[in-house]
Amino acid sequence: MKRRAWLLGTTVGAGALLLGWMALPQRSRLGLASMMAPGEGDIALNGWIKILPDSSVVLAMPRSEMGQGVHTALPQLAAEELDVPLASVRIEQAGWDAVYGNVAMLVGNLPFHPLEEEREDGFGRVKAGRWLVGKFSRELGLNATGGSSSVADAWEVVRLAAATARASLLGAASLQWKLPAEDLKTARGVVSHPSGRSITYGELARVAAATPPGVVQLKDRKEWRVIGQPAPRLDVPAKVNGSARFGLDVRLPGMRFAALRLAPMLRGAPGRVDAQAALAMPGVDRVVTLPAYAGSTAGIAAVADSYWRAQQALNAVQVDWLPPPGSGPDSQRVQEDLRRAVERRDGYRFFEQGEVDRPLRAGARTLEAWYSAPFLAHATLEPMNATARVAGGRVEVWAPTQVPGMCRAAAARVAGVPEDHVDLHVTLLGGGFGRRLEVDYVAQAVRVAMDLPGVPVQLIWSREEDMRHDFYRPMHVARMRAVLGAGGEALGLHIKSAGDAISPRWMERGLPALAGPVDLPDKTASEGLFDQPYEFDDQRIEHVFAHTGVPVGFWRSVGHSHNAFFTESFVDELASELRRDPVEFRRALLRRAPRHRAVLDLAAERSGWGLRPLPAGRARGVALHESFGTVVAQVAEVSLERGLVRVHRVVCAVDCGTVVNPQIVAQQMEGAVVFGLTAALHGRIDIRDGVVQQGNFPEYPMLRLASAPLVETYIVPSERPPAGVGEPGVPPIAPAVANALFALTGQRNRSLPFAL
Amino acid sequence: MARLNVNGAVREFEAEGDTPLLWVLREQLGLTGTKYGCGIAACGACTVHVDGVPTRTCVRPVSTVGPDEKIVTIEGLSRDGSHPVQRAWVALDVPQCGYCQSGQVMAAAALLKAKPNPTDADIDAAMSNICRCGTYNRIRAAIHAVARGDLKSAGLSIQHSDGSTT
């Protein structure tokens, strides 16, 4: 407890120092009209909103579309407050000003326990930490799409920017007509007066740009017509006719293609390289040796006038690959080391309450179980790629990325130019899931392009490189211990887990200036454990931070992806030990968590839990988990077919606060179930002597349509501010299925993927 | 110069005969709607029709496609996105990231051509393309919606706990 207070104290203290040093004014995130790129005839009213002559609207878009629907949800916020149809909102990539940074993502990563927040009166540690990190994030302006934070982050600022623009338009009409603004109305991009006068936004824009907005008020939720509607996604038409442009679809005159091979051993390097034969092949321009960029591994790239030729050339290059110093990591050994670390090393205590070490009361008993989860690859369907052109001290990059600012900085570092000499275009992302929070592939593309001045080069990773050189979801193990009283009371919970920290490694790779000499405790390791919602009198939730040497990164739902499996399986074990119904047992421990209870109740009710019997050979399992501010419960119906796990139906209940688009919420739950189930049934990356053993889909299988369960989504109505939906559907599915399998077979799966 | 019949037009290109059709379409002919996902015909992102047969082009040497065989890519499925499969995909908001969807749409179009009223088992067997975003529920529903010829009521409705649906 003391150590934790000291560390947090140091963090907050250092933040205060930094702020004092920089003497930062409180800055509005609305930004200035000059921050938006000027276009033909359009008028910017602030840093987010431009009005076109035809009264359509351009919204500055700082977030990447990777399937989660952000290019629809954010325009919905703007359309609502501007009173324009959703179809008339277009998006344009936002600029580089700090107003476009993602504040919610960083604030959401603070290791505060919900109980602490609840109990805090006035301005305490939680509020001070949030305030400081919020202020720091606003200055940092980290433009990132991750942590299920886009809607939560944009919720105030985009609505405010749109409402401010609307107020200026009303003000302009009021000036022009010499009528009070209160008497004017807006609808479908037109300002009107009861007298019958009307004028379009397009006609008013120029005057509005010089008109102060006056009093700006956001709509009451009762007035919403766009927010909360299942509006069709704006990106869908282009995604069914081949016109959507992903990173791999960038086409530029005179473009060359580069094929990549990194050292087979993680952190290995090319030694002697003989490219003679390759360079003699038709259409081949260059063979480039690449250093290890941004935490990735060193390798080589071959450049040619077609990707196929580049690949053939790459195969013809003779390389002596050098192993990394010392021995390469081995996943089997990592697992043994992590288990030993739990047994022998002190953990960082993320949460402590009561006294877990007290002697057992009469009649009480201890239950203990070990859980583990493997390394996992992201396997976005669009492999890593980027296109770059370097000429005359300027760099232009096209990249499917979740972190455009970090890519820009990485490109500038590699090319040795100032950041403002880098133009970075964000394409659509063929999946992200956290892999595209990394900048390795952009650095490589820039390095290759530097060897062909003025020539645009598209660097394409093969599927095999993508799988063998990922930043993997770290392996974690956990020892779960509970003390149950004679009457089944939940007396104590002691969780001790071990695994790599992700955040400090990621900072070293992408934000080296902010990486410190000492790792601060990384909340992602223990999220979902230290803040688990069940009431146990005594609790100690600790984590031993490991350094396995395996490159690790954020993987959809991050620490929750394994920690929900640990807690929700273990809670099920306790229920079973006490011969209690899993839903009823959870409810009893959630007396102070009404949101969780409501979500659990809804999933139980809709699934027919305890009421509707299933056909013979099928069983239900339940799991409940909060992540990224959203609570999700899932009930899975499972059977075994010829020895294989078959999940038939998943009933999913979700409380994600205010819903901006229920269709997108449902889509994300459906997709998250498949994503999490793929991992639970098949997902494992094995590393032997530093070499990743899986290279393509046959070895790292994906769930396909034939084995995908039917997913039903039910939303708990809420007036809380919106929370994320991209990730929270993932964590509960593995434990829900594990618990169903236990109900079916009496066998408990405590490691992923399931072994039967 | 070799020739291919793509989307109703004869196109000329230069490439070694062992070049997979995928790369000729994407690089020589500029048809980037057909995607690279695995390079070993395991994911289906590269699916096009060759004489009506759904074909994974990442492993199909271009020399094995004759100049008279009719290739249809996602760009050629319809002029204006009006193919019933495309309309159903829009009506049900199928795509998420969208990267695999060209292949999914082409596989579904071929299935429905062969079997206008596919059963779930038919869909299971024909639709083996990988979707990493997990849009499978909506793909199945959209195929059934095309078969029913009823796109308006095709929505997977979302039910709220207060009893309303959207």
Automatic annotation (TrEMBL), chain A:
Protein name: Xanthine dehydrogenase family protein molybdopterin-binding subunit
Molecular function (Gene Ontology), one example: oxidoreductase activity
PANTHER family assigned to the protein according to its UniProt record, in alphabetical order: ALDEHYDE DEHYDROGENASE
Membrane-crossing segments per the record: none
Lineage, broadest ranks: Bacteria, Pseudomonadati, Pseudomonadota, Betaproteobacteria, Burkholderiales
Signal peptide positions (record): none
SUPFAM superfamilies named among the record's database cross-references: CO dehydrogenase molybdoprotein N-domain-like, Molybdenum cofactor-binding domain
Matching Pfam families: MoCoBD_1, MoCoBD_2
Domain Aldehyde oxidase/xanthine dehydrogenase a/b hammerhead residue range list: 241-325
From TrEMBL, chain B:
InterPro entries named in the record: 2Fe-2S-bd, 2Fe-2S-bd_dom_sf, 2Fe-2S_ferredoxin-like_sf, 2Fe-2S_ferredoxin-type, 2Fe2S_fd_BS, Beta-grasp_dom_sf, Diverse_Oxidoreductases
Domain 2Fe-2S ferredoxin-type: 1-77
GO molecular function per UniProt: 2 iron, 2 sulfur cluster binding; metal ion binding; oxidoreductase activity
Superkingdom of origin organism: Bacteria
Entry-linked PROSITE patterns: 2FE2S_FER_1, 2FE2S_FER_2
Gene3D superfamilies: 3.10.20.30, [2Fe-2S]-binding domain (1.10.150.120)
Keywords: 2Fe-2S, Iron, Iron-sulfur, Metal-binding, Oxidoreductase
The keyword NAD is annotated on this UniProt entry: no
Pfam families (alphabetical): Fer2, Fer2_2
Protein name: (2Fe-2S)-binding protein
Organism, as annotated: Ramlibacter cellulosilyticus
